[in-house]
Amino acid sequence: MIVVLTGGTGGAKFVDGLRRLLPAEELTIIVNTGDDHEWWGLYVSPDVDSIVYVLADLLSSERGWGVRGDTFHCLQAMKELGEEAWFSVGDRDLATHLLRTQLLSRGQTLSEATSYIAEKLDVRSRILPMSDMRVETRIDTPAGDLSFEEYFVKRWYQDPVNSVRFSGASEAEPAPGVVDAIASAQAVLIAPSNPVTSIGPILAVPGVREALQTTPAKVVAVSPIIGSAAVSGPAANLMTAQGLPVSIAGIAKAYEDFLDILIADDSDSAAARDINIGGVTVHCTDIMMRDTEDKRRIARAALALACPEILSEPAAEFR
Amino acid sequence: MIVVLTGGTGGAKFVDGLRRLLPAEELTIIVNTGDDHEWWGLYVSPDVDSIVYVLADLLSSERGWGVRGDTFHCLQAMKELGEEAWFSVGDRDLATHLLRTQLLSRGQTLSEATSYIAEKLDVRSRILPMSDMRVETRIDTPAGDLSFEEYFVKRWYQDPVNSVRFSGASEAEPAPGVVDAIASAQAVLIAPSNPVTSIGPILAVPGVREALQTTPAKVVAVSPIIGSAAVSGPAANLMTAQGLPVSIAGIAKAYEDFLDILIADDSDSAAARDINIGGVTVHCTDIMMRDTEDKRRIARAALALACPEILSEPAAEFR
Asked: Cys-Cys crosslink for B268: which of A135, B16, B205, B264, Cβ 3.0 to 4.6 Å?
């Protein structure tokens, strides 16, 4: 079993590459839920949805979130009714939120609701929310204490960031299967996701970091940073706020207690030679995911470093 | 103030005629909520919505319900997720249900939520749900005890009907303003709605029938029956189940304790002469509402009989 920790659009792209290389049943995805929020009275889990959609081959690759070809008529009607409309929910996407909200209100856990929805969409990989308990990423800014979606979507990550915290994390437990999946994995891959607000919440759930430290599997991360900038999104500001250098060294430092191999961009090969953090080895390649071929190539690079035997198996191409 | 009791598609058509003849502020609509039901976890009030939409000039005149030009992408996605999809909720329509559900969950009454939504859509007439308490129309059939929407929409009103009851009615109270509106009206109009399941639930709310009996205003109904058949929908079977003849005599009988004038179709003029129920006078005209001009004409006929002075006022055409 290959286990991936992920969140955000970069993570979904990486998973899109992996699903093309591995049998669905050999993939377990542990997903950030720190961005989850209530919207129009519905429970929305943006990173879980992106992973469900990418594995169901429904994700909009243009937007990087939501359902391909979706319309936004309900959103427009909500705007006309005077409701908040800064979080774009598509009409097809809305069905997922409506169904999840109902399942949760009937007493299902987030894990159970996620499995139910994934199964209905013929997803055969395992998708595990990091926790069934509420862990909320909060961004402290001069404009106030914001939820991640307020900071990221509503305010376009323009606010200076004082600090980031994961409200509820200390009392949370990993969702069923999370720790076992890491402990028994053939390889653990950390997607090129924001280390603070996509991977950070997963690591903040008690027990996850320890599982990563003790798993016999290799832990391989793909850097979301090239040079001194994030490939996309607010990772740079958030890393700075957390005291991490905005560089591949910062990524290595964020994961130093469990990381074996960091895959960085070719353009960072000089920086890679200077890294001397824990037992981390840096491997350089072209890490920009522009198209499907890139996603597949980078997923293959990660698998080749983490678990080369899986790629030597027959029929290692699925789409 | 002109007060209308209504439910169903015939009622919405009649209100569409009235809004073209009267200043919005002079119209109060008392609406059936016996069809209200939970759908995908949302509180849906079909007859209230139809009246909000018709007054906001948003109602689909092709379908007679929902929003003109609406799409059904969320419904399709729900179907693909394996959820029930027999109740057609459009994507724009969904915004109304989402907003109402949120307003109710924040403690607003149905009246308050209705006023809020109507105001956001620039509706200036008063829309009063019959009650803020739950009164549920239940249809007893050989296939079981069905909600109105199950009987009407899901099962295409094909089941024989044993009886109809209004669950919760005896403990319900009229919504604020309902009794006062009837008591102080210049005229009360009963729309050409199903007398059993559209007007019946309103009359089942304690106090409404008494208000109609005692109001000094004329009470004028437009028949939903022509000959021995309903203009549309399941009224015939439902009237039979309630012991009412399927004819204009049955309509007169349903309303005999408060009705002054029944407007029936020209084709029923012979039957009209035989009616000798309470103090009911029957007036015949062409009552089929095929287009806007028909709706306006029939609304005008009702107003001319109930309250002719309102039509002699200047600027009596609004669209």
From this structure: B264
